[in-house]
Amino acid sequence: MPQTFQHSVIAEFRANGGRVGGPFEGSDLLLLTTTGARSGKQHTTPLGYVRDGPRLLVVASNLGSPLHPDWYRNLLAHPTVRVELGDEEFESLAVPAEGARRDELFARVLAEAPGYAEYQHATDRVLPVVVLELPDPDATAPPVASLADKLVEVHTWLRGQLRHVHEETEAHFAARAAHPGTGEPPAPGLGLQIRQRCLAFCQALEFHHTAEDGHMFPTMEGHHPHVADVFDRLREEHRSIGAVQSALAALLADVAIAEPDRFRAELARMTQELTAHLDYEEEHILPLLAEVPWPPAAPAPTAPTAS
């Protein structure tokens, strides 16, 4: 899709609550924003989708090209994506389906949009099917009114991702144990899902710690010098947790052949260290942030001066 035309589709989508005309009139269309694998810049792409229960399915067809589209390579490097669907916008974890599950979901896509079969016939590349989870309609997040609330929100997300990694890891290893032998990883084929979730978790944790070390902690130390030892401990824990993340990433290089006991031990060690770190930070930092409003108030406009 030429860039000028793509930009016009994006503008029309956003101006009309997800409705567009022209060749896409009446189509199920979403906007997917990914982070560039090399540039780190945000890129938004209009994509057709098929709804599958609580999931959206998008296909990296690239119109049958022999190469994967840029947005697909981006989400492999940065799994957390932003989805615009109608007038709704939310973050999602992008997970390519594997093996038999990919084939099952591709058949589901073809039932709704048979044109993708032509794209598959045009290339030897197996067209990836990417699963985007919809927000849980029953989840009610507590209101965020202070910086303390925002910190709890981030910590809750991190704890939740670790819990999912544990659950998916155990399901993956159980399936492997029940299906000995060589060849394709057994259903449910969670290798990529675990990789994507762990990568998203590690990137979010690194961003969170960088923001704390670079901005929040220095500002707070200026107002609360009596707890300087707390900030020193948290910074040191950031460094040690970063080392644990690196060890886990090395294991995840190929979870399909990872040694289960070693993987579990590293994951348990990281979980224990991170949980203790979050608990300590909440105990000592939250009371200092309870009166800081979130989002930050906009600076007051500067009065014009006489020339």
Describe this structure in words.
- With 307 residues, the chain is of the alpha+beta class.
- Helix content is 52%, strand content 14%.
- It has helices spanning 3-15, 70-77, 99-112, 116-121, 147-178, 191-223, 228-251, 260-289, and strands at residues 29-35, 42-48, 50-52, 55-59, 80-85, 88-96, 129-133.
- It has a 7-stranded antiparallel beta sheet with strand order 2-1-5-6-7-4-3, sandwiched between helices.
- Helix 5 runs antiparallel to helix 8 (260-289) and helix 6 packs antiparallel against helix 7 (228-251).
- The mean pLDDT is 86.
What structural class results from the helix and strand content? alpha+beta
* Cross-sheet strand order for the largest sheet: 2-1-5-6-7-4-3
What is the H/E order? HEEEEHEEHHEHHHH
Strand tally: 7
End-to-end distance? 51 Å
Largest sheet: 7 strands, antiparallel
Strand composition percent: 5-15%
Mean pLDDT over the full residue set? 86
Task: Give the uncertain stretches in residue-range form.
Answer: none
Into which percent range does the helicity of residues fall?
A: 40-55%
Radius of gyration: 22 Å
Number of discrete helical segments: 8
Shape descriptor reads globular
